[in-house]
Give the backbone structure.
Amino acid sequence: MEFFRIKRDIPFMSWGKYTTAISSVTFILAAFFLATKGLNLGVDFTGGTVMEVGYAQPADINKIRGTLVKLGMPDASVQNFGTSRDVLIRLPIKPEFSSAALSETVITALREDEQTAEIRRVEFVGPQVGKELVESGALALLVVCLGIVAYLAMRFEWKFGVAGIIANLHDVIIILGFFAFFQWEFSLTVLAAILAILGYSVNESVVIFDRIRENFRRLRKAPVTQVIDNAITRTMSRTIITHGSTEMVVISMLIFGGEALHYFALALTIGIVFGIYSSVLVASPILMLLGVSRQDIVRPEKKEEAEALP
Amino acid sequence: MNRYPFWKYLIIAVSILLGLLYTLPNFYGESPAVQISPLRTAAKADTALLQRVEEELKNANLPIRGMFLEPGGVKVSFADTDMQIKARDTLQSRLGNGYMVALNLLPNSPQWLTNIGALPMYLGLDLRGGVHFMLQVDMQGALSKALDRYSADIRGSLREKKIPYAGLEKQGSVIIVKFRNSESRAQAEAEIKRSYDDLNLREENVGPEFHLKATLTSEAQARIQDSAVQQNITTLRNRVNELGVAEPIIQRAGADRVVVQLPGVQDTAKAKDILGRTATLEVRMVDEEREVEAALRGQVPFGTELYTERGGGPILVKKQVVLTGDRINDAQAGFDANNQPAVHLNLDNNGARIFRQLTRENVGKRMAILLIEKNQAEVITAPVIREEIGGGRVQISGRMTTEEARDVALLLRAGALAAPMDIIEERTVGPSLGAENISRGFNSTLYGFAAIVVFMIVYYVMFGFISVTALGVNLLLLIGLLSILQATLTLPGMAAIALTIGMAIDANVLINERIREELRLGMPPQAAINGGYERAFGTIIDSNITTLIAGIALFAFGTGPVKGFAVVLCLGILTSMFSAVFVSRGLVNLVYGGRRKLERVSIGQVWKPADDKR
């Protein structure tokens, strides 16, 4: 079986105008939703309490809400979580309740209404911790970006590093855009997924860059556009197959992983789809734009090796 | 060219064998167990304890599944949780207060596996259920307590040296001592400087008064805060031991934080209550010379405080503390002669001496025993001293419930917190959710893996099969490695295992596509295989290193669940490079390497542009 039967190099670079336009539009849309709607930050970042409460039979959301209002928590959000028997309660930070007492107060009140209520999960994050998690998250993102740029610059050339990271930040913004548009909850695990995507989807750019470098040595007379087109065309089948395989696992996670892994898997799913697009159609045009040339790659001392290749 | 020397096959075989061996314990599961550890150094975990536990359980008719003696205590496993809980209750009541009896899980794997250190993966709280707390130590509180101590000491020194002073007060982080003239101030300054080198002194004149301002030096502040955190950790550890938790984790996190993880704790309310309480005991004298009535009107005499005795009337208590809870060796709940709940205290040598002296000098007078919690003091009892009490045995009884007596005893036994603490992060996962999370993580991995197996074999036939075998080896090595390292496996960690599988196949796809490409260019099969592996190698390294960078950054900056994700991701990248490149090449060599005249390889259809021109 062979999916990809491509006779000639696909002129990706001549489509630069369109792909740039598509990228810009999605990017601007994502940035727009991020700016207007903002991320629905989870309790990890905002601070507050999340309780997952399990019942023996389908839970009466309105009654639970009523009980919480009676406790003086009208700003609590109550919703089903996964099944109709599980309820997720979100409580903002309450200075008048001590952190430890809050979840106990709530579960005691809920037990009075319904004997079978049991705590499945409680997460409380104090405001200062939330702030720190935001900071360390941002720092991790920055370090990953710098690390990747540095590695690509060392392994290839700075232009490759810059092109690679721009393409991948483009993915990150788009994932964030999705989370902002649908107001999906952005938690610590989602951040982990995004960072993993950043590392993973750079792979794609690396594979293409590797080919570009090889082509510069091999196709000595070809113009830069042709070198890049050839590199992308010849790596395309593996790009799609590897991403496809990873996507299979991630979708399995989306289906079987339950609520706890839902947004994590969702972020990965989106990230992988856009990862293909961006490494093929974003990274390489940027590389062109930065004016990559044969001299950047084929240095005199490497000439022998280049000639040794068939 | 496609042959491996024997030693390379040996490495592969050994690594797979080790992987199998260390992955094995994960398949046996765990059985409910009870862990019995002595709380005091006097009692030892020895064969005598082992025998005693066995006897008690036999008498209670609870069949034992397995029993182990370890340096920390005795572990007994049972067939089900019902029996486990019965056993815990039985042992707790029969063995008494000297032992901690906690619920635990024990791996079911055979003894020989345990002997070579093969243990199941260490599950995080989100998979096994339990409580995670992050507590912040109130550093200001620690300093303020230290200043209180210094104030009392300075008062004592000045009185002892007969240096007259007009007053002493604490304002924020400053102790102000007031004098009527500069001579006595100079005297005092010399004296304080001599005795307390932790204090910075500054003179100041306010109106007619001569002030001496004392502040803590920055080194002293750092030292006090550091020891406050240390002491709090010790106290927390004692308290957690009292709660009966198997394998608790209590560690310092940063300058002023403590992380407490209690696996398998069900009663989180009780855990939170016991951890957060700052109870300590003070013994002071009751001031009987002055009028309580005047104090009730708002004129509390100097040097005394007004309290209400539990279940009694208001009393005036002197500010001076005679004895504190630090002097308590042991505290047990029990009953007094009138069958009222009581706490029996056992003071240390120093405490016993002080207490004997106090009671000798104050026969006929009243002393007050105060319980101080969250900066609120309460007089539990204020008995009249009838005679000298020696030997350091003290009994406090005063309108307590049995439950209260037990909690007070526990808190006094565990020692006081050096500074108050706040819970700033809490993550509790119930055991049912933990079990659900395990099966979810497992299913995600299983079905993802299955999908890849089907696709790879259909698309790359023999090479697909080889790739998938290598992928299986990768999974085996990863789980084996996680078991060896006993790294904490969390739900995101399980997600990382699944993700690693998806990402590891990347390397094999890269290789297989390269081989196809070489074949397309008309290379003979053996050369194509060699070329494919050689050329793909650089790319595989590059792409894995970028992912590794992300993984390391996540590990460095992540906390809790994210860290768990990062650990597995990084380990998975390492094992996948080994299996995808080294192991799969070994397999390919085994299958194809030996054939001199290899006409074609089974890598699926290799389409050549020329074939299409019909």
Q: What stands out?
A: DSSP finds eleven helices and six strands in chain A. Residues 48-124 of chain A form a domain with the Alpha-Beta Plaits fold (CATH 3.30.70.270).
